[in-house]
Amino acid sequence: MDFVKSAFFDFSRNKGRTFLTSLGILIGVLAVVLLTAFGLGLRAYIEQQFKDLGSNLIRVVPGQILKNGSFSNTSSAFMSIQFDEKDVQKLDRIKEVAIVIPVYSRSVIATAAKNKESSTLYASTEGVFIALNLKAEYGRLFTAQDVSKRSKVIVIGPNLAENLFLSRKQAIGQSVKIEGQKYSVIGVVNKKGGGFGGPDFDAFTYMPYKTAYTLNTNKTFMAIILQAKSDKDTKAVIRQAEDVLSKQYDQDEFSVIQQEELLSAINSIFSIINTVLVAIAAISLIVGGIGIMNIMYVTVTERIKEIGIRRALGARKSDILLQFLVASVILSLIGGIAGLSLSYLIVLFIQPFFPAYIDLNSVLLALGVSSAIGIIFGVFPAKKAADLSPIDAIRYE
């Protein structure tokens, strides 16, 4: 207890030095905790997106996307095949399938009056709104009749509506030009979210896939989404879809992927990325530790006479060692707790916009690393102080 009081007394005499030394640890802990919080938030966001879509969705895509639970290099296989309406019709015959949704997607520029905005064209059937859990906030969604008649209508995301027409409601009935073709906006969907490194669903342009044949001249699809009638039918749908497609394509030319498999692969990537980012951020903790070591060496040099007097009065080496080691650990903990507190305030501020959060592991990591740095980088100066000869220390000028 006396060592703790002594440490705080020394800190109070050198407030500026104490602050600057702890600042290195503060920045390091702040970086590590915030990166961990952002990683956890991004994972939670993606998991919620998948939950909103439902667990009974199955994606059929070109190439072998997954291998042993992870994403594989599919660049060559991806370009090897393209799905068409015949594939859609064959998959539609599977009795456990509720909806078959062909998807053609690409980046486009949407123009309305003098406004231009980048958008992702998502051409499909009317079933896409059921599969993606989208509802019309204003206007209506396109129907099977719109698809079969190739009606020149589109449904747009709320962000795109606001950017092109200033408000979502005003977008209804307006015309949007995409690659020289005019389309009438019949609906604006509810806010879905997106971005943060993924697709911005609120800037999508949804179009009947047959209407998009003027843009998709090959009449092919980048993916086909299947919705099973229930969760228990999912495995049967995957098996039958593989059987149907294997009659037309080689096994390595396509993938039939369940939501959970895709989510698991994405999470494994995020885990690796987050680990690398935290490791990079941890470099600043090492820098902060070196700062503590330097300051403790300076402190030892300033207090050599005091150390000599204490040794002469009977203080043991272990007492001197513990005195400076406790001061080093406390200095690290001050920076760690300050960094953790600041991280918490920043996370609270951004939570309304992004689901970042600090878990118990982050707290334990921050305090544990702070303490460890204090011990590791405090040992050398503390040992130097303890090893001083009492006579030489007293004579030191």
From TrEMBL:
Membrane topology according to the record:
Multi-pass membrane protein
Entry GO CC:
plasma membrane
| Chain ranges of the MacB-like periplasmic core domain | 18-243
Q: Which InterPro entries would you find in this protein's record? A: ABC3_permease_C, MacB_PCD, Macrolide_Exporter_MacB
Q: Where are the transmembrane segments?
A: 20-46, 276-300, 321-350, 362-380
Q: Which intervals hold domain ABC3 transporter permease C-terminal?
A: 279-390
Q: Which domain of life is it from?
A: Bacteria
| PANTHER family reported for this sequence | ABC TRANSPORTER PERMEASE YTRF (PTHR30572:SF4), MEMBRANE COMPONENT OF TRANSPORTER-RELATED (PTHR30572)
> Could you tell me what this protein is called?
ABC transporter, permease protein
Organism, scientific name = Candidatus Roizmanbacteria bacterium GW2011_GWA2_37_7
